Amino acid sequence: MIYKKLKVYHPINRGDKIMNLVNIVVAVYKPNAEYFKKLLDSLNNQTYNKIAFLFRDDSDDEEEHKEITKMIQEKITKFEYCIYKNECNLGSNKTFELLTKSSTGEFIAYCDQDDIWEKDKIARLLEHILKENAVLCYSNLSIIDDNDNLVACSFKDVNKRVKHMYGENLFSYFLRRNSVTGCTMLIKADVAKKAIPFCHKYYVHDHWLTLYASTQGTIAYLNKPLVKYRIHDNNQIGASMLVAVNSREDYINNKLLKENNKYEYLLKEFKFNKIQREKIQAMKNWTERRKVFFEKKSVKNTYFMVRSLREDWQLIIFELFINFAPDGIVKKVFSKIKS
C-alpha cells in the first residue's frame, strides 16, 4: 500500500461553511496510459479542496502496478491519496466494494479509469446533494471518443430509452432498471457501507448502490454533464445489453429466466423490509407471467401483455413483436440492437 498523508477526517468549519471530506475511489485495471493520465489531470484539477483519493489496482501485474503508481504520483499533486493493490484479479465490482470499505470520508464518488471529469464535478454534486437532503446524487454526462472528440452532449443522445429518475420511493424502478452511471454518482459514505456486501451476481456496483440508496432516502439528479464519458473499443455504453441473446429462445432463457432468478436471489440472500419484499415478489410474478407468454401463445396471455403496457410500454411492445415475428426477423433485430 502506498499513501500520501491519508488519515481519517471529520467535517471541519471554515467560517460558517462545513467542509465534508469526499473520497474519490478509483478502480484501475491495466489502464491505457494516455487516457489514465488525462483522467488524473482532471481529478487533480477539482475545485473542491477537501478530497482524498483511494486507488485500487486490480491488474495482478507487478510491472503494471509500478507504472500505475508512477502516473498517480506524478499527476496527483494537490490532494492526498492511497494506492492499494489486489493480490489477484477480482473484477471491478469487488474492487469497488473494497474501496467502499476503505473510505474514511462523509461522501464517496466512484471513478472509472478513462473518463475526464469537469473541474467543478465534486463541488456541484456536493452542493446539490446537501441542498436536496439526498443520500445519493448523480449527474448527466457527455460522450467523447478515443481522441477526445465530442460525440454527444447528453447520455440521452446515445440511449433514448434512459429516463433519469430522482426523488423518493424509487425502489421498484431500480429493481429492474438503472439510470445512474457510476462515474456520475456521489453517495453518502454511511449508506454505501451499509450496501456491503454488493450483489455481485446480478448487479454492477452503481446499480446495486442506487437500489440500496433508494431504500434509505431521496435520490437527487443534476441535469448537467459533469463527466466526459469515453467510448472506445473496450468501453461501450450498453455493451452488455442483451448479452448472449440472439434468438427468441435466448431471450427466454438468458433474459427472462435470469431476471426471475435475480428476484429469487434477492429474496433469499438479502434483508429487505416487508414492503420491499412485496415489491420484489410482485416484480418476480410479473416476470414469470411474461415468460409464460413466450412459452404459450394464447388470447389470455396476450391480453395480460396488453394490460402490462402501463408498466413499461416500450418493453412490452418489443416483447409482443419478438414473440409474434418470424424467427429470422427476430434474429436480425437482436443483431441490430447489439451492433
TrEMBL record:
<protein>
    <submittedName>
        <fullName>Glycosyltransferase family 2 protein</fullName>
    </submittedName>
</protein>
<dbReference type="GO" id="GO:0016740">
    <property type="term" value="F:transferase activity"/>
</dbReference>
<dbReference type="Pfam" id="PF00535">
    <property type="entry name" value="Glycos_transf_2"/>
</dbReference>
<dbReference type="InterPro" id="IPR029044">
    <property type="entry name" value="Nucleotide-diphossugar_trans"/>
</dbReference>
<keyword id="KW-0808">Transferase</keyword>
<comment type="similarity">
    <text>Belongs to the glycosyltransferase 2 family.</text>
</comment>
<dbReference type="InterPro" id="IPR050834">
    <property type="entry name" value="Glycosyltransf_2"/>
</dbReference>
<feature type="domain" description="Glycosyltransferase 2-like">
    <location>
        <begin position="24"/>
        <end position="170"/>
    </location>
</feature>
<dbReference type="InterPro" id="IPR001173">
    <property type="entry name" value="Glyco_trans_2-like"/>
</dbReference>
